[in-house]
């Protein structure tokens, strides 16, 4: 089957589920008519009907109409949702993807029919603008299923296959990391306002600067310190600012925050 003919349902369209939904709807190559979105309250997703998305409160119906099932509910709800739909899953047809933090593949296997292709994936809310970094692991799924799962997550950004024991670390960097970077951006904007820029101008400068710095590393493949050295001249304002930030714990506080988040979910 052509992958763009695969039908997908997103069970639980909260913030993350809606971000994935937005990314798929915006993709001109994938038919929105092949997407089903579920949520207890349809008012929050009814606008997607205008794009051809089918919406429902009935998870069992959604599963019957789909090939790929993305379970985007809160971790404490995952096993309950899987219990409700398990009798309607066919290992010859369905692939199940859980987005839940800290619900492991073996737990998912125990809750679902034998031989069902099962994946865990951790995208982030940048899926909304097709710039997610999604980490994926699986239960020794076949190449066909792996290609299918990557097809959908590559529609909303970039995906990477990792071993399950690394999923917690990847979640902290790729999912919690979105909030860390946004807090850094907010601080830069506040600093810009303090030195004389209005909020709108400071925000425009900072957003593009951060985007440009990330693109520079992605396209050139250099270590960050290599690019930092290019803009730190002797006795210049850049090195003075960097040293002041480091004296006040910039790098160490970021590292401590990452480790603290990891300790919480591991």
From TrEMBL:
It comes from Ancylomarina salipaludis. Belongs to the pyrroline-5-carboxylate reductase family. SUPFAM superfamilies: 6-phosphogluconate dehydrogenase C-terminal domain-like, NAD(P)-binding Rossmann-fold domains. Keywords: Amino-acid biosynthesis, Cytoplasm, NADP, Oxidoreductase, Proline biosynthesis. Its EC number is 1.5.1.2. One of its GO terms (cellular component) is cytoplasm. It comes from the Bacteria. The gene is proC. Residues 164-264 form the Pyrroline-5-carboxylate reductase dimerisation domain. The keyword NADP applies. Pathway: Amino-acid biosynthesis; L-proline biosynthesis; L-proline from L-glutamate 5-semialdehyde: step 1/1. This is Pyrroline-5-carboxylate reductase. NADPH binds at residue 59. Catalyzes the reduction of 1-pyrroline-5-carboxylate (PCA) to L-proline. GO terms for molecular function: pyrroline-5-carboxylate reductase activity.
């Amino acid at each position: 089957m052509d992958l763009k003919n695969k039908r997908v349902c997103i069970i639980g369209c909260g913030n993350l589920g809606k971000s994935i939904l937005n990314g798929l709807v915006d993709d001109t190559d994938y038919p929105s008519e092949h997407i089903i979105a579920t949520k207890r309250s349809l008012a929050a997703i009814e606008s997607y009907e205008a794009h051809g998305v089918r919406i429902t409160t009935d998870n069992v119906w959604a599963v019957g109409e789909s090939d790929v099932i993305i379970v985007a509910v809160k971790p404490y709800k995952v096993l309950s949702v899987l219990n409700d739909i398990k009798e309607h899953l066919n290992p010859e047809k369905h692939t199940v993807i859980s987005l839940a933090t800290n619900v492991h593949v073996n737990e998912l296997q125990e809750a679902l029919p034998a031989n069902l292709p099962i994946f865990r994936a951790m995208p982030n809310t940048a899926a909304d603008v097709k710039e997610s970094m999604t980490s994926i692991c699986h239960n020794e799924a076949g190449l066909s299923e792996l290609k299918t799962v990557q097809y959908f997550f590559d529609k909303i950004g970039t995906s990477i296959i990792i071993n399950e024991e690394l999923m917690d670390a990847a979640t902290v960097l790729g999912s919690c990391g979105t909030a860390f970077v946004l807090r850094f951006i907010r601080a830069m904007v506040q600093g810009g306002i303090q030195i004389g820029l209005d909020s709108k101008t400071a925000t425009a400068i900072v957003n593009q600067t951060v985007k440009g710095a990330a693109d520079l590393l992605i396209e050139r493949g250099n270590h960050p310190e290599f690019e930092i050295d290019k803009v730190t001249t002797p006795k210049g304002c850049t090195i003075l600012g960097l040293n002041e930030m480091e004296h006040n714990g910039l790098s160490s506080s970021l590292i401590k925050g990452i480790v603290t988040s990891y300790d919480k979910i591991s």
